[in-house]
Amino acid sequence: MSEPTSEKEASSSSSSMVPDWTQLPEELLHIITEKLEHCFNVIHARSVCTSWRSTFPFPHSLLRPSYSLPAFGDFPYVSKGLCTLEKVPLFLFRVQTPAASPSEYFLGGVGRDVCVDHMELQYPIQFSVKIPGSEPTVLNIRNSQVFPLGHQYRIMGWDPESWTTKFKGVAFLPLNKEGEFVVLLNYTMDLLVLRSSEMRWMRLKETSNAQCCHLVAFRGRFYATFINGDFFIFDPYTLKRTPFTPLPLLRSSKYLVQSGDDELLLVEKFNPFPDAEILDFNRFTCRVSRLDNEADKWVEITDLGDRVLFIRDSGNFCCSAKKLPDGCGVSGNSIVFTNTGYMTFAYKYGVHTGKEDDELNIWRFSRENRVTILNTSPMVAFKQSVKMTEPATSTSSLPSDSVSKLSLSPSPSAKMTTTNEITVSVVPDWSLLPVELLHIISKNLDDCFDALHARSVCTLWRSIFPFPSHLSRPSYTLPTLDNKGSWSLERIPLFLFRPRALAASEYFLGGIRRYEPEEEEEELPSPIQCTVKVEIPGSDPKLMKMNDCQILPLGHQYRMIGCNAKEYRNVVVLPLNQEGGGGDFVVLLNFTKVLLVYRSTEMRWRRLHTQPFTTATCEELFTFRGKFYAIFISGDFFAFDPHFLGLTTLKPLELPNCGSCNDLVQSGDDELFLVETIIPRNDDVLSFNRLTLRVSRLDVEAGQWVVVTDIGDRVFIIGEFGSVSCSAKEFPEGCGVSGNSILYTHMPWNETYFYKYGVETGREEDDLNCWRFSRENLVTILSTSPVVALRVERCV
User: Fold this and answer.
1) How does pLDDT run across 348-405, given as a tens digit for each residue?
2) Which residue ranges does the record annotate as region Disordered (predicted)?
């Protein structure tokens, strides 16, 4: 007979038994559904089993209603695609930690993880929230405090904090119960508006001439702040603007924060000592105002109650701190900026600093608790340290307390001395530079790549420095020849890059575009390492640091994207009505045997008849000073009026007993050159190394070609996909490239030389009065497509 089970063993056995909740009667489930008010409690219930998921509907507050809108990426041109506008619910998660540990907070939108929603989880339920990152953080909701923060509208696939896009935010207003709405979109220097009744994007005409910083929809109106201090209200029906700048005027950064459905707050951050010799970011202060809806004016306030305002780049929010426990580091009546560096403090009103010249009646840094920003996109993550014992007194741009105790574990790349010390170089936090100074900097950046460097510093700098227009690629959507599809005609900027560090001079010539990776863009460490990626067939992509390169702009070139027909050779465009506006243009397409013309006013392709003038194949098309120029394989050369009302013959001077291959090279906006490769007709053996050139300049007034023997400091680079001219005077001596020279990159061999005028060959029969190979420097052609890459080495 077995011995009786002890009371302790029975208790242990009983506690390990888990009830089978899947067997709960359905009528009890419906009672439970009526009692669950918190959306995350519903999520817990849905994760029990299939029957519970079918009984508990997905919480309405976590749904993300969406609208399909016309795409706007090609504005002002009409896009055929669609984009999705979503209403994203926002929450603040506080990880519950021991009292002595720093509190961690996560602020952002919540989406539905479908794969988790369709899994049955083991008991006890451990439903979690996954925080994106290099290694996603998983928060157990049962161990977190969750605060709803309302919602935010977002265009899916467009990141307002990314420097690769013009999109900076969107606001949405419903108009009536029938579902009509208005969308206002911040597109860098433009505000775009879309009405649901029209479903097309239009540029808002009445706005500021500066870039928009923040858009908010509140109580049936749009509110917008601008980088120059302008503040406007926009009526959603008339789209008329009303100035609404608070008084007295301040040179400040303005942030709009909505508190529930009834209050709109304005936070202005400014330097109280604008004339001081030393700019101390730690002494910046704030002014807070509340919108008086009845009086329609701003009223300054000094108390936020139990509220905490969070200011960030992609939207500002307000939450209540009264449910947070003592000692968690967050208290009411405070403002936290998450966009001003990796370490900061909350702003509070009436803080004593110990300095006589610091006013008490203002919002400024309170050094009670330190805030460490762990992440800003796609979710804001920060850590609130417990109360500090000593106030900071440093006047550096970063709080000195934040680095008073530093513990480092060396990484494999850390350079250590024999004493195991790590040298840390302190880098200025350029994101804290005042807005007014940034505007001065932006006006003095002439080089487009300097603007790119500036845009990569931080989100604030990206919002102030627009993407350089020289690097943008405007495009036209044109029909295919059979009208069954479409092509994209792009205006591609061309550049020449020379890396300085290489022993042999290498040059890369080609079009450039913005690189838009799928992953989130990161802010680059200092020193900024903006790079250009060069793709060369047969080798890994080459990354070149722009700080280590000489960069020369070479104008632009039009290309027909999507046209893969073997007959296609090149395309050129001429805008019309430049003085009167209107945006009309004419396109001339070289389709080998035929020339096709497309007028924007007709929106269709027509054949351009060149008979009886020539029946030959067109070699090259060009535009210069409002006319089209065409070279034919027969040697014929014509200039076309853009309206095709007249044709002018521009045949060069005769070459006795010789033929020629002709190329056009434009130098700036004022000069057009013709380079002829002379081919003797009576030689038994054709030696490519002994071919000579003749160069002529177009005399526009006389309508004829004039032979030239000197092209100054210019270098002509002639290739299969077009010819360019650049100045060699900026290159250092010994780099292999000098002025008054011509280089062909599409020869049948990969080693060649520059052509120069009057080269001594040592042969009596060789004429000096022509352009021929100069064997001073050997040029190795590394690639011809999609980028021309070449190496220049001095011959021994």
Assistant:
1) 998 888 888 788 889 988 887 888 877 666 667 667 665 443 333 333 232 222 222 2
2) 392-415
Q: What's the rounded Cα separation, in Å, for the pair 164 and 374?
A: 23
Confidence (pTM): 0.47
- The upper half-sphere exposure of residue 573, i.e. CA atoms within 13 Å in the direction of its Cβ, equals 19
The model's confidence at residue 431, banded by pLDDT at 50, 70 and 90, is: low
**pLDDT grade, residue 137 (50/70/90)?**
low
Residue carrying structure tokens 């001065």: 440
Q: Return the closest-CA partner of residue 229 out of 181, 266, 196.
A: 266
Residue 481 makes CB contacts below 8 A (sequence gap 6+) with 596, 605
What is the four-CA torsion angle of 150, 153, 157, 162, rounded to 10 degrees? -80
Task: Read off the pLDDT band of 767 (50, 70, 90).
Answer: confident
CB 241 within 8 A of CB 207: yes
My answer on whether omega of the bond before 527 falls inside 30° of 0, hence cis, is: yes
Q: What are the residues facing 695 on neighbouring strands?
A: 675, 708
CA dist 775 and 761 (Å) reads: 10
Q: Model confidence over 529-569: pLDDT tens digits?
A: 456 666 665 566 666 666 677 788 888 888 888 887 777 88
State how far the Cα of 534 lies from the Cα of 529, in Å rounded to an integer. 15
For 600-636, where are the E strands, in sequence order?
A: 604-608, 618-624, 627-632
Contact present, 395 and 278 (Cβ < 8 Å): yes
In Å, how far from its chain's centre is CA 583? 26
* pLDDT for 20 beyond 70: no
Contact of 680 with 728, CB cutoff 8 Å: no
- Cβ atoms of 343 and 116 within 8 Å: the answer is no
pLDDT over threshold 80, residue 152: yes
Burial class (CB in 10 A: 0-12, 13-18, 19+), 153: buried
Q: What are the backbone dihedrals phi and psi of residue 238, each rounded to the nearest 5 degrees, phi first?
A: -90, -20
Per-residue pLDDT at 761 exceeds 90: no
Name residues whose C-beta falls within 8 Å of residue 696's C-beta, 6 or more positions apart in sequence.
652, 653, 673, 674, 676, 705, 706, 707, 708
Q: What are 144's strand-pairing partners?
A: 95
**For residue 737, which of 536, 550, 556 has the smallest C-alpha distance?**
550
pLDDT surpasses 60 at 328? yes
Contact indicator for 755, 773 with CB cutoff of 8 Å = yes
- The pLDDT tens digits of the residues spanning 617-642 come to 888 888 998 889 988 888 788 888 88
| Residue in 724, 668, 662 with CA at minimum distance from that of residue 694 | 662
* Spatial CB neighbours of 163, under 8 Å, sequence gap ≥ 6: 455, 456, 462, 467, 521
Strand, helix or coil at 48? coil
Q: Alpha-carbon distance 206 to 191, whole Å?
A: 9
Residue burial 624-638, b: 16+ Cβ < 10 Å; e: rest: beebbbbbbeebbbb
Q: What are phi and psi of 323, to 5 degrees?
A: -90, -5
Between CA 66 and CA 183 the distance in angstroms is 13
Give which of 281, 299, 304 is closest to 350, Cα–Cα: 304
Tokens of 189: 């220097």
642: preceding bond cis by omega (within 30 degrees): no
The token pair at 657 is 């007993």
DSSP letters of 97-152?
Answer: --TTSPEEEEEEE----HHHHTSPPPSSP--EEEEPSSS-EEEEGGGEEEEEEEEE
Tokens of 523: 């802010």
Phi and psi, residue 534, nearest 5°: -105, 120
Instruction: Report how far residue 52's alpha carbon sits from residue 401's, in angstroms, rounded to the nearest whole number.
Output: 52
Q: Is residue 309 within 8 Å of residue 267, measured between CB atoms?
A: yes
The percent of residues above 90 in pLDDT, for the chain, comes to: 14
The vertex-716 CA angle with 710 and 718, nearest 5°, equals 140
Q: What pLDDT does 135 receive?
A: 54
435 φ, ψ to 5°? -60, -40
